[in-house]
Amino acid sequence: MIERALLKVLEDKSNYSRFSSVLGVLSRETGIIVKNLGEYFEHNEELSWPDFASWFFQVKHPSMKEDQCEIYRTVFESLESSESTHTEEQIAEALKERAVFTEVGNKALRIAEGTGDDPMDIYLLLDDYKKNSSLLSEVESLEVTHDFEELVDSITVRSGLEWRLEELNLSLGPVNNGDLVLVAARPEVGKTTFLTSEISHMLSQTDGDVLWFANEEAGTKVRWRIIQAITGMTTQDIIADKPKALKLYKDLGGERVRLIDKKEFSIHDVERLLETSNPALIVYDQLRFFKGFEGQGTDVERLKHLYRKARAYAEYAPSIVVHQARGDAEGQLYLTQQQLEGTQTEVQGAVDAMIMIGKSHDASLDPMLRGLSIVKNKLTGGSRSDPSLRHGTFEVQIQPEIARYTSTVHKNPNS
């Protein structure tokens, strides 16, 4: 009798807006009553079921057949004489459950009929249901603080992860939970080396794990470059003194880099791992190769949904996602956000910051020179951030022999 309990709760006009969105999961009769209640409350502050019943029959449904009228009379009479046996929270949970499983059933039917729905959507619906155990949230728990000191501290005393490259500390500032940062470049410019360089530096700032999803390069190759970046040693130096390299690797947190090497990741794989771990940083290399949302139509739509998921998962830990730059970025030192592969606005809109890495084919320039372009920056910065560099361009050097990048102008005081 959850629908009768809902109608009892709706006797209070203040509850109407909180529950009016559930019309789609109600029976036809209850849905009509709830819809008409909305119109009734536009002209009345309080609800009397006898008054509502008169208005319902005479104004809204004067031509209703007698057998239907009898059904509604029975409902109204029971509401007038009964008390609710359910709390608002219980009602919300029951309606949420009904909505989720109705949608799951509809999707399962469409999949069985071969009409193109993605089976992964069912997993996502159920995962969302597990996470959001209530249809309602108290406003007080969601309202942003008015505490001035707390707000100032949130901007000026950020305790996130700083970058190895001081250029990024001056431009972006540290990364925190909720931040999603995109790194893009052409093939063989140094995307993976950028990741190993920065992550090996961030490791020293946390006791947590780095969850790295690698679905482009071979996992053993990436692991070796992680070892180089953490130890600061070349391949020759590591081979020559393996005990030293192993000690450095362990002491500096190398075993906390959880490198997941699977060529056909799905979004469900990511969510399952996040639920069973407590990462300090999440890395996707590359997100566009993940499985999921195949039933969304175009590749552009699928990519948009993947990035929206990564955006949601950033609440677990700050996240860095690698993307490919288009062919017209080949040979350019400084790239634009329009040069991302397979997207014009969908990916750009989902991320908080974008770091584009370019390499010039000019023979007169150092082949190890790389250009960083901060083409989007919605991060709040940190204590060392320079507002004039929020969307800066910078020249840096790549050191592939130790899988790191180095600054050419700015010195990181903590490196």
Descriptive overview:
- With 415 residues, this protein is an alpha/beta fold.
- The chain is built from 17 helices and 9 strands.
- Strands 3-2-4-5-1-6-7-8-9 form a 9-stranded mixed sheet.
- β4, α16 and β5 form a beta-alpha-beta unit.
- α1 packs across α6 and α6 packs antiparallel against α7.
- The termini are far apart.
What attributes does this structure have?
43% helix, alpha/beta, 9-stranded mixed β-sheet, single chain, 415 residues
What is this structure's SSE topology?
Elements: H1 2-9, H2 16-19, H3 28-41, H4 49-60, H5 66-81, H6 88-112, H7 120-131, H8 139-142, H9 148-156, H10 166-171, E1 180-185, H11 191-202, E2 209-214, H12 219-231, H13 235-240, H14 242-251, E3 257-261, H15 267-275, E4 279-285, H16 299-313, E5 319-324, H17 346-350, E6 353-358, E7 369-377, E8 393-399, E9 404-407
Parallel strand pairs: 1-5, 1-6, 2-3, 2-4, 4-5
Antiparallel strand pairs: 6-7, 7-8, 8-9
Summarize the structure.
The protein has helices at residues 2-9, 16-19, 28-41, 49-60, 66-81, 88-112, 120-131, 139-142, 148-156, 166-171, 191-202, 219-231, 235-240, 242-251, 267-275, 299-313, 346-350, and strands spanning 180-185, 209-214, 257-261, 279-285, 319-324, 353-358, 369-377, 393-399, 404-407. With 415 residues, the protein is α/β, with parallel strands linked by helices.
